[in-house]
Amino acid sequence: MFFIPLPLVPIVFLIASNLFMTVAWYGHLKYPDKPLWMVILISWSIALVEYCLAIPANRYGFKVYSAAELKTMQEVITLTIFTVFSVVYLKESLTLNHLVGFAFIGLGAWFIFKGPIHL
Predict the structure, then answer these.
(1) What is the CA radius of gyration of the chain?
(2) How buried is residue 74: exposed, middle or buried, by Cβ count under 10 Å (0-12/13-18/19+)?
(3) 19 touches 81 (CB < 8 A)
(4) 38-57, pLDDT tens digit by residue?
(5) Chain centroid offset of residue 61 CA
(6) Treating both helix axes as pointing N-terminal to C-terminal, what angle do 96-114 and 67-88 enclose, rounded to 10 degrees?
(7) Is 1's pLDDT higher than 70?
(8) Could you tell me if residue 88 is left (phi over 0), alpha (psi between -120 and 50 degrees) or otherwise beta?
(9) Distance CA 19, CA 25 (A)
(10) Are the C-beta atoms of 61 and 9 separated by less than 8 Å?
């Protein structure tokens, strides 16, 4: 069905899903003069595409990864895409505080994928 290895399918779908999610949730911030009802309708339309990608990502991903690993992947991908989006599109600064916080999240992701630690 897919031309990419199964372990990569959820990653590709999650990246695509998160691109749409980020635009749906934050893209309207550059247009504060637009009516809220319009922003909501447009954002929900974009979010529908996001859901159509996120659900298969998790369905196929659960054949290879645990639910905790899938959620961790999603969070790391979301954070990465959001960081680029906020700097490039919203023109916000990336500070040392952000980098330190992201590093701690990355450390948490490492522990999730490390496997059980036996005491």
Answers:
(1) 16
(2) buried
(3) yes
(4) 999 999 999 999 999 999 99
(5) 15
(6) 160
(7) no
(8) alpha
(9) 10
(10) yes
